[in-house]
Every structure is written in structure tokens, then in C-alpha cells.
Amino acid sequence: MVESDKNEPSVRGENSSYVKLISSDGHEFIVRRDLVVTSGTIKAMLSGPGQFTENESNEVNFREIPSHVLRKVCHYFAYKVRFTNSATEIPEFSITPDVALELLMAANFLDC
């Protein structure tokens, strides 16, 4: 039996603090649950019993979102949580023109 690394975040179990987001090109992003629920869509998929298997597996597959866009979305989740209701000056969240349209479509789908 292989012992798991205690420093590695786990996405197993309904009370897991982490969620695995999988891009259309197969890249996996393990992100804290409190960050991903910034997305209304992901929050609905992960909350309570219902039609989504994601709330049991803590994995969400995005067939239409490539890794370069999903990476930026994950950065935005952290940015939004960090600076929402912050008393400090909020820095600009930079978006390069080459990813802007794809990011807009992903943000619309993810409701964030």
C-alpha cells in the first residue's frame, strides 16, 4: 500500500477543502474550494444533492475551456476573494488581448 503525501491537497470526500478543475486539454488545477465557489456555476455544481456528479467527486471537467484560459480563471478566483471588500487599493487584473475573448466567454459560462 502506498502512503499518500500529507502535504498534497486532497480532493476526496464531500468535505474536501480542494476541488480539481480539468481543462479541455486535460490539465488539472487543484484549487481551494473557497476560491472556486466564486463561480456561480461551479458553486451550483458542488453544492448539495442534485443532478451534478461533481458534488460527489470534487472534480469539474470543462470540455470547452482550454488550460491557458482556465489558469487565468483560477488566478481571477484568488484575486476576487483577496480584494472583495478590501480596504487596500485594488490592483488591476491584467488580461492580455490574445486571451480576452476566450476569457470573456468562460466568465460568462462560469458566472463570475
Automatic annotation (TrEMBL):
Domain of life, source organism: Eukaryota
Signal peptide: none
Keywords from the named record: Nucleus, Transcription, Transcription regulation, Ubl conjugation, Ubl conjugation pathway
InterPro entries referenced in this protein's UniProt entry, alphabetically: ELC1 (IPR039948), SKP1-like (IPR001232), SKP1/BTB/POZ_sf (IPR011333), Skp1_comp_POZ (IPR016073)
Cell location: Nucleus
Pathway(s) it belongs to: Protein modification; protein ubiquitination
Family membership: Belongs to the SKP1 family.
Quaternary structure, from the entry: Heterotrimer of an A (ELOA, ELOA2 or ELOA3P), ELOB and ELOC subunit. The elongin BC complex interacts with EPOP; leading to recruit the elongin BC complex to Polycomb group (PcG) target genes, thereby restricting excessive activity of the PRC2/EED-EZH2 complex.
Protein name, UniProt field: Elongin-C
Organism: Bursaphelenchus xylophilus (Pinewood nematode worm)
